[in-house]
Amino acid sequence: xxxxxxxxxxxxxxxxxPEIRSTPNGxxxxxxxxxxxxxxxxxxxxxxxxxxxxxxxxxxxxxEIIRDYVKKGSKLYVEGSLRTSNWDDKxxxxxxxxxxxxxxDLSLLSGRDEGSSGGGYSRPAGGSSSSANFDQRPPAxxxxxxxxxxxxxxxxxx
Length: 158
Fold this sequence. Notes:
Number of strands: 7
Structural class: mainly beta
Largest sheet: 5 strands, mixed, barrel
Helix content: under 10%
Number of helices: 2
Distance between the termini: 55 Å
Strand order of the largest sheet: 1-3-4-6-5
CATH superfamily of the domain at 1-37 and 50-91 and 99-126: Nucleic acid-binding proteins
CATH class of the domain at 1-37 and 50-91 and 99-126: Mainly Beta
Radius of gyration: 22 Å
């Protein structure tokens, strides 16, 4: 059988605060909508914006991160896969379909004042990191050695 790929990559904004729930066995689930936009020129030559809404679902640790750091307006980079489910509508008897993106990787791109308190937190869904602060630079004013070191032309290797 030929190899197949089911991969989605999105960069967009969260439309409303994520809904967080737990399954009966305790698995955390986050559901939310993500908007992506593109620009095109219509037949009259005017620029138009088209927004597409995507339904996303995240589980376990990724859902916890979404609960803690994602809110309406957050800018996200998301990788995942498509999953379509179907059921019979009890009222009309018609078959219904819903396509969702199952999140496997998530990067928060918003700053603290741009709709997210995460400030650039990024973590693959399979990782086990529990810290949301990866900035390891020393606080301002504590880099005295680099400030006081003088560099001459003799120090440059080329």
